[in-house]
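The instructor's notes for this session suggest beginning with a concrete chain rather than abstract definitions. Hand out the sequence below and ask the class to guess, before any prediction is shown, which regions might be ordered.
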Amino acid sequence: MNQTALLEAVAAAALAWNRARLTRIEVARRVPDWRHPQHAMASRTLDNARKAEAQAKARLRKACAAADPASLTLDVEVCEVIEAVTLPHWEGAG
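After discussion, reveal the predicted structure:
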């Protein structure tokens, strides 16, 4: 494939992943509370939406790798670390 076709494949995969992501977000908003009679069915629908999003993301990664073989994919988990800072007690400038 030429470079233009590879970049078009990346763009198409990115759009498909974004559609799947937006669908998953919309489905997640509609899942009722666990006490609701339709919760189990809505949860299965959400699981299917998550699976579709993961598949679309995998296709996007493959398209990116094909367009740029030297590319590197990093999976990063963000977390916040808070450390208490203690200052030494200082008793005036006597």
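Then share the key points. Helices lie at 3-29, 39-67. The two ends are 79 Å apart (CA to CA).
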